[in-house]
Design a protein that fits this description.
The complex is a heterodimer of chains A (about 270) and B (about 300).
Chain A (H helix, E strand, L loop, with lengths): L1 H29 L4 H8 L2 H41 L6 H16 L2 H14 L9 H27 L2 H9 L4 H31 L11 H12 L3 H36 L1
Helix pairs in contact in A: 3-4, 3-6, 3-8, 3-9, 3-10, 4-6, 5-6, 6-8, 7-8, 8-10, 9-10
Chain B lengths: L2 H35 L2 H7 L13 E5 L33 H12 L7 E5 L2 H5 L8 E2 L13 E9 L2 E6 L10 H4 L4 E4 L3 H10 L6 E3 L2 H9 L5 E5 H11 L3 E6 L9 E7 L5 H13 L2 H9 L11
Parallel strand pairs in B: 1-2, 1-3, 6-7, 6-8
Antiparallel strand pairs in B: 4-10, 5-8, 5-9
Helix pairs in contact in B: 3-10
The chains are: A mainly alpha (about 270), B alpha/beta (about 300).
Chain lengths: ~270, ~300
């Protein structure tokens, strides 16, 4: 009873303090003599509603790109993580390749990679090599994000205590079976929140395809922005991205909380 | 509730508002009439060099985007700011190229010597972002548009622009002779240019237009076969053909879309006290034939190409 009351009191204090901070912010921003100018440049209602359909239409390209990319990134990242975890001396080249791959593609700025692949490779004019910007943007995102994701997988795999694998081996499972049926199922469950985190980053990076001339949401907003010298269309893009990413962030939080609850439940 | 009363109350409200608007307009017209009635000599007097509201007293701060491109800005960058360096080096402080020459002609008319002109580099987007500007005047082939004039001031136009199509040998549109031939082409343009509107309004291609952040990316895309051709202003199209492309071809010039003649103007801070003076100077340079002779000097026969039908 007292716990419920103190919880209610806590909520009340939180609401009041949030309102006070928000009001102070609004007053201090609104009192700036330049606020009307900034408001007109960034938050113009007319430009917002007229640019909304165009930007949403262009957002279809971002969706296609991140869905396709994610479908490719998840298995490729896992394969690279497994290649890096190999201890067998005979397969050392595979491990070395995987290490170089993650080092390189996590380190190189994605903007450079998309320039080289998107403009450079088609310029070679090799028969059979596609020149579509969408294709090369997809390749760039898959190369870079599978390097990130492979490290997330690897962290997950290494977080499973070695006793798990040894126990499995003692029960007669092969190395592969131990990995497949004992280590990976536990590791994958653990890395779902960080994977979703990378997925959110991937969604925003789909704007990279605009460098190659493709008119996706961000580029569409920029076109409207420079046509009218008004920045409001960029706010439209921000809203669209937030509408997609905020529910996903909340989902990550809930999954993490659920995972914590299950693990604590197990030890009780 | 009595509907007719409500309606009449609304009508009264509208009348009051109308009256206010009419009064405001009358006052506005009176104010305009007053200034129009004053003799041109007084306009010149109010634009006297020492009365101008400048960023830096005694200096005229001009600005364009870096790198600057021929034929708008020309000449090397020896001894001047390194910011203007690049593959296609054009230091605006040389006063060469059409916009470079126009900038110094305007500065001279306002009473500034070449030594009193200062150049700063400004990104196109920054030139119209709200807030204080770092320049008095910005010129970088910016087309004058009513919507844009809500965010910045424009001077009178100093150049009548037309859009041209440039491509390379081996492109599907290398032999194009009409607008219809361009319908199936994948065309590219630079963001923020009116070229993009020209493609959509005049050519109306079947495939979506590729839009690039700078002309450098558009050129890379043309070389890589991502696009079949670039639409840009005619002098820039000639410059691309002559200096930036291997095997470049001018397909032709686009006809007007029937709207007002597109013009490039100086960009100034919204409500700048300089705007009227700069416009007066530009109008004067146009009237006395200075702009025409600078056009012949720097752009010459490269201001127009065969018009596509």
């Amino acid at each position: 009873m007292t716990a419920a009351r103190s919880a209610r009191k806590g909520t009340l204090v939180a609401v009041i303090s949030t309102l006070v901070v928000a009001t102070l912010l609004a007053i201090s921003i609104g009192s700036s003599p330049s606020w009307p100018l900034v408001q007109k440049a960034f938050f113009d209602g007319t430009y917002f509603s007229t640019s909304l359909p165009d930007v949403i239409g262009a957002f279809a390209i971002n969706i296609q790109l991140f869905v396709l990319a994610e479908i490719l990134i998840l298995p490729i990242g896992l394969l690279i993580a497994l290649a890096r975890s190999i201890t067998s001396p005979a397969l050392a080249p595979l491990r070395i390749f995987a290490t170089i791959y993650t080092d390189f593609f996590r380190g190189v700025p994605s903007i450079l990679l998309i320039y080289v692949l998107g403009f450079g490779v088609p310029a070679l004019r090799l028969p059979g090599v596609p020149s579509e910007p969408f294709f090369w943007a997809l390749v760039t995102l898959v190369l870079i994000y599978s390097a990130y994701v492979s490290e997330v997988y690897r962290a997950g795999i290494e977080s499973i205590h070695p006793s798990q694998e040894r126990a499995a081996r003692a029960l007669g499972l092969t190395r592969f079976q131990a990995l497949r049926y004992v280590v990976l199922p536990q590791a994958l469950r653990r890395v779902v929140p960080p994977l979703l985190n990378d997925f959110i980053g991937l969604q925003k990076d789909t704007a990279l395809v605009s460098i190659l001339g493709v008119v996706e949401a961000f580029k569409q907003a920029q076109i409207l922005k420079s046509a009218n010298f008004n920045f409001t269309p960029l706010m439209v893009t921000a809203v669209i991205f937030l509408v997609i990413t905020i529910p996903m962030t909340r989902l990550v939080d809930r999954l993490a909380a659920k995972d914590r609850a299950t693990q604590q439940g197990g030890t009780r | 509730m009595d509907m007719s009363t409500t309606r009449s109350r609304i009508a009264i409200g509208q009348t009051t508002r109308m009256a206010v608007v009419v009064m405001a307009m009358a006052m506005f017209l009176a104010a305009c009439g007053g200034s129009a009635a004053s003799p041109s000599a007084s306009v010149d007097a109010s634009c006297a060099k020492d009365t101008l509201a400048l960023k830096t007293a005694g200096k005229l701060t001009l600005s364009t985007s870096a790198p600057a491109y021929s034929p708008w800005f020309q000449g090397g960058n020896e001894g001047s700011a390194a910011i203007w360096a690049g593959d296609y080096v054009s230091d605006p402080a040389k006063g060469q190229g059409y916009e470079g020459a126009v900038a110094y002609a305007v500065a001279a008319k306002l009473g500034f010597t070449a030594a009193e002109v200062v150049w700063v580099a400004t990104d196109f987007t920054v030139s119209y972002a709200p807030g204080a500007k770092s320049f008095d005047l910005y010129l970088a082939q910016v087309s004058i548009k009513a919507e844009r004039a809500e965010a910045v001031d424009f001077s009178s136009g100093y150049y009548d622009a037309a859009q041209g199509v440039v491509t390379i040998e081996g492109s599907p549109i290398a032999g194009a002779t009409s607008i219809a031939d361009l319908k199936t082409a994948k065309l590219g343009a630079m963001i923020g240019t009116t070229s993009l509107a020209a493609i959509n309004n005049i050519i109306k291609p079947d495939t979506e237009v590729a839009v690039f952040d700078t002309n450098d990316e558009a050129l890379a895309a043309l070389n890589g076969g991502l696009i079949d051709g670039i639409v840009t202003d005619v002098p820039t199209a000639f410059y691309m053909r002559d200096a930036q492309l291997t095997g470049g071809i001018i397909v032709g010039q686009l006809p007007s879309d029937g709207g007002a003649q597109e013009q490039f103007g100086f960009v100034l801070e919204k409500g700048s006290a300089l705007t009227a003076c700069v416009s007066a100077v530009v109008d004067g340079l146009k009237a006395d034939g200075t702009l025409a002779s600078l056009l012949t000097e720097w752009i010459a026969d490269k201001a127009s190409a065969p018009v596509l039908k």
